[in-house]
Amino acid sequence: MGKEPIFVRPLTDAERGELEASLREADAFAVRRAQIVLASARGETAGAIAPRVGFTGQTVRGVIHAYNARGLAALRAGSRRPHTCHGSRRHPLRRREVKDDYGGR
Fold first, then answer.
1. For residue 66, which of 36, 47, 74, 78 is within the disulfide window of CB 3.0 to 4.6 Å?
2. Which helix (H) or strand (E) holds 61?
3. CA-to-CA distance for 9 and 40, rounded, in angstroms?
4. Which of 79, 80, 81, 77 is nearest to 89 (CA)?
5. What b/e sequence results for 16-42 when a residue is b if at least 16 CB atoms lie within 10 Å of its CB, and e otherwise?
6. What is the predicted pLDDT for the residue at 57?
7. Mean pLDDT of the chain, nearest integer
8. Rounded CA gap, 85 and 101, in Å?
């Protein structure tokens, strides 16, 4: 069984205008995301959109989820930094006390 189709929420006229304007931007990231959102608004499935924009179906579904959650802000690239710190970065480095051969520090 395949995934349940997901579509963007209904677009306002203002959003549709912004998305169409985004198709003419130099930023390829925004152009591809606008293409995905507009195609989804026309009723096309993620599987049908994916080959046209060069993404996987899962990536297209991710864009649709992002648009439904954040609106036009989802057209802009976010930070690529990790959202969490791992292991050794959680605590500042602690200096270990090392005694020298004479019993001092």
1. 74
2. helix 57-70
3. 9
4. 81
5. eeebeebeeeeeeebbbbbbbbbbbbe
6. 95
7. 85
8. 38
